[in-house]
């Protein structure tokens, strides 16, 4: 008999339309949101914190057996805190899949996760869990996260991690079922992922219409990237994930009171961020709250050069060749496990000619080996899900 699967945690973009929940039922609005004023736009961004996270929930739900039921985490948390309890969920599900990102980090105490998972009396699958910096965790694991790990030790648990570092940390904590599989977003639209890898050595750097992603407002890195790699006379393309929330990037409404065009994903009004004077032509900046719209737009481009992991993954899901810049330990762990094409930020920064450096790196890639490595990782991921009993 197949297990009854509850999926919660990081959601896909579809949960933007959830307008209520009662018991096991979640209701969804038929009206698509159009967050075009500054207040509406920023609130929509706050709801997910980082639009790249939508890929995690989307990839997880596609990989898991189709009879699985997705319930927003906020509903489970409200039930737990307001006296309703989670007995109805315990009676109707056999296993919970909790979709994660870099949950193990110094600045995040997983109090809400410990609250909910502590009351779900069923095995828990922590899917896509990762750490930010192992040295930070060894020195000061947040109290809420300690409680969460204690909860998971008390029952049957499965950790499918983003990479080897997280797997090693969890094994050191005494957990038994720990297996590196990568982020579930990587295995969404695998045929397009392979197609993007095959195209990489043929990219014409400096001529290819290129998508850029990074940390506008925090540093000038992607500005330097665009100055070096964007075709002469073109307007470089940049995709937002969380810059308006966490960095020194701002937008003011245009004459119509709008900062955002829902149809195209284009930012309107006046954008400001440090370093704009370094670009001959300002970025054409876009934000996407719908992953299908994001992929559709990305598919019109020729190349992605990204300092954001999920901003690059979605380009690959659209079949666009992508080269990532590994900027931190979190990203290095994911790239180290998957073997997806990347260069380290240290090497990029010291290159005398960034365009030549990138072009030489791409020309030296072995596309067949990249595809074989990806296919091997995909088989490992799907095999782990079937072994647990939640795959298809």
Determine Rg (CA atoms, Å). Answer: 21 Å
Shape: globular
Can you give the mean pLDDT? 95
| Separation, N- and C-terminal Cα atoms | 14 Å
Strand content: 15-25%
| Number of β-strand runs | 18
Give the helix/strand class: alpha/beta
What's the total helix number? 17
**Main sheet makeup:** 6 strands, parallel
Q: In which range does the helix fraction lie?
A: 40-55%
Low-pLDDT stretches are none
Side by side, the strands of the main sheet go: 4-1-5-6-7-8
Features:
392 residues; alpha/beta; 6-stranded parallel beta sheet; 17 helices; 18 strands
Descriptive report:
The protein has 392 residues and is of the alpha/beta class. The chain has helices at residues 38-48, 54-63, 73-81, 87-92, 111-117, 134-139, 143-153, 164-172, 190-199, 221-229, 243-246, 291-298, 309-317, 329-338, 345-350, 354-363, 367-388; strands at residues 5-9, 18-22, 25-28, 69-70, 95-99, 124-129, 157-161, 178-180, 210-213, 237-239, 250-252, 260-261, 266-267, 270-272, 284-286, 303-306, 322-326, 342-344. The strands form five sheets. A six-stranded parallel beta sheet has the order 4-1-5-6-7-8, with helices on both faces. The chain has a six-stranded parallel beta sheet with strand order 15-10-9-16-17-18, with helices on both faces. Helix 9 crosses helix 13 (309-317).
